Amino acid sequence: QVQLVESGGGLVQAGGSLRLSCAAPADVRSLFSINVKGWYRQAPGKERELVAVFRNDGTTSYADSVKGRFTISRDNAKNTVYLQMNSLKAEDTAVYYCNAERRLTSLNYWGKGTLVTVSL
Fold first, then answer.
1. What pLDDT, on the 0 to 100 scale, is given for residue 31?
2. Are 70 and 116 in contact (CB under 8 A)?
3. How many other CB atoms sit within 10 Å of the CB of residue 117?
4. Structure letter (DSSP) for residue 29
């Protein structure tokens, strides 16, 4: 099992910003074997959906609903992925989950989630 440490969630007013972080183990072995892909979210009563991820070729993919407002970035040396969320809307309220994979396998890992609440 791989522990993904998420942080940065909280309560913010509509129009505000938050920055989420997801840190995977940063030992040498993990740096080469664990690939932090990005972020998903799950709102109450809804299915988990993709928010922003890195594709295997290094390019990024965003949900249409967050394009232009959210930016995903990474620090490879720290094995950490960030999600900068600007112009937050009430509909962005959800539990945000970090996702990682073990390279060259089908193994997938999820963080415990961090709650983002956007108030009107």
1. 76
2. no
3. 15
4. H
Res. 30: pLDDT tops 90: no
Give residue 98's Cα distance to chain centre: 4
Q: With H, G, I as helix, E, B as strand and everything else as coil, classify residue 43.
A: coil
- The pair of structure tokens assigned to 94 is 């959800």
Which pLDDT score, from 0 to 100, does residue 106 have? 86
Per-residue model confidence as pLDDT tens digits over 72-104: 999 999 999 999 999 999 999 999 999 999 988
Closest CA to 99 of 66, 118, 72: 72
**Greatest extent of the chain over all pairs of C-alpha atoms, in Å:** 44
Nearest residue to 6 via CA among 33, 41, 56: 41
What's the confidence (pLDDT) of residue 2? 87
> What are residue 36's phi and psi, to 5 degrees?
-80, 115
Residue whose entry in the numeric block shows the structure tokens 């963080």:
111
